[in-house]
Design brief:
Blueprint: H1 5-18, H2 20-36, H3 41-61, H4 64-75, E1 91-95, E2 99-100, E3 110-111, H5 113-127, E4 134-137, H6 150-160, E5 168-171, H7 177-188, E6 192-198, H8 202-211, E7 215-221, H9 245-266
Parallel strand pairs: 1-4, 1-6, 4-5, 6-7
Antiparallel strand pairs: 2-3
Length: 270
């Protein structure tokens, strides 16, 4: 069952509560509130615990050695497939990863790096002859009003890279990974597909598409990790222990993906 506009907006809002930075801000806010209340020895103890806890949590979620392990375990879920020569699928399915609207500074609509990398990967598989059809899926994810759709720019990018327009099928309504799967089922029916998305996203996406009756070969791309988690310890250096904003983003992606797997499993969609 697809989300109504109201529940889609609620879904987007709830996601902010899953962001690790939100956890830090809530803990800091509670600690600040306690600090401004009338002095009390017992309350001072909780202020100290809150301050130390906020700092510790921020250090953990923004340190590369932590974020790389979390996201790397998701990216290692599916290995890059070795496709024998002559193997053909009914379609290559590429999942949208967002689009950037034009404005007073950005002159044109642009794909996010996620959508661009996924589309490029899908085109590469198409040019290798793995399928005669390229499906791109992703609609307007605006909560208020309307905005551009992922698939329009993904199709334009695929054509620029050499895919004939007649070989591309667009699924224009999906706003979530579950809707990617159900929408693709409507345009393709049950089929054998090469499923292309970011490596960290495929653990969830593959299970959702399989639940819809597809015979799925996952094709991960857009890796952020160089090595499998168990192999990464050999390449550690000083900078892996220094917090940075890139590590914070990776932790957020890992938490969102893990939460998505749990929620879809609890609702029977996996």
């Amino acid at each position: 069952m697809e989300l109504t506009p109201f529940f889609f907006g609620l879904y987007k809002l709830v996601k902010y509560g899953l962001y690790p930075l939100t956890w830090v801000l809530l803990l800091m806010g509670a600690t600040t509130l306690l600090a401004f209340l009338p002095h009390h020895p017992g309350r001072l103890r909780w202020v100290r615990i809150g301050a130390a806890g906020s700092l510790t949590l921020l250090l953990l979620i923004s340190t590369p050695i932590v974020s790389d392990q979390l996201l790397g375990r998701l990216e290692a879920w599916h290995q890059t497939p070795i496709i024998p020569a002559g193997t053909r699928y009914d379609a290559i399915v590429v999942l949208g990863g967002g689009v950037l609207d034009k404005g007073t500074l950005r002159p044109t609509i642009e794909l996010t790096s996620y959508s661009r990398d996924r589309t490029t990967c899908g085109v590469d598989h198409y040019l290798q002859g793995h399928a005669a059809t390229l499906v791109v899926t992703g609609g307007d994810v605006s909560v208020f009003g309307s905005g551009p759709k992922d698939v329009d720019e993904m199709k334009r990018w695929a054509v620029r890279l050499g895919v004939p327009e007649r070989a591309i099928i667009t699924e224009t309504q999906a706003r979530t990974t579950y809707e990617n799967a159900t929408g693709t089922r409507r345009v393709l029916g049950p089929a054998s597909i090469l499923l292309v998305s970011s490596a960290s996203h495929l653990a969830r996406a593959t299970a959702l598409f399989q639940k819809q009756g597809f015979r799925v070969t996952p094709a991960p791309c857009d890796f952020t990790s160089k090595n499998r988690p168990q192999d990464s310890w050999h390449d550690l250096d000083l900078f892996d222990f220094i917090p940075n904003d890139r590590a914070l983003q990776r932790t957020r992606e890992a938490v969102i993906e893990a939460a998505g797997i749990v929620v879809y499993w609890l609702t029977g969609k996996l």
